[in-house]
């Protein structure tokens, strides 16, 4: 849930909390470190998608907003739902894997 607390889905703040948790707990709590790393990868993926949508809008001089805005809204809603699902699973002690995350941090 750190992504929800530190930034919205289009901002860079969404991966600050998972990064801090992963860096602090990676040697002491393996489950917490694993889930923080998973959240970090997912939030970085969403930030990349958001940046691509923004660039597409700018490159097309705003005309692309008719495509990028609906896609951005869908990505935002999916982000919110998947973060909440991950929080519920992690609270139950079950490892959660985001379905559309690039595994950048191994």
Number of strands: 0
Q: Count of DSSP helices? A: 4
Tell me roughly what share of residues is in helical segments. Answer: 55-70%
Regarding quaternary structure, what we see is single chain
Structural class: mainly alpha
Note the main sheet.
none
**Beta-strand percentage range:** under 5%
Short description:
Helices cover 68% and strands 0% of the residues.
Walkthrough of the structure:
The protein is mostly helical and 106 residues long. It has one domain. The chain has four helices and no strands. It has helices spanning 2-6, 16-25, 30-59, 65-91. The chain is elongated. The protein starts with a helix and ends in a 15-residue tail after the last helix.
Characteristic terms for this protein:
elongated; mainly alpha; 4 helices
Summarize the SSE layout with pairings.
Layout: H1 2-6, H2 16-25, H3 30-59, H4 65-91
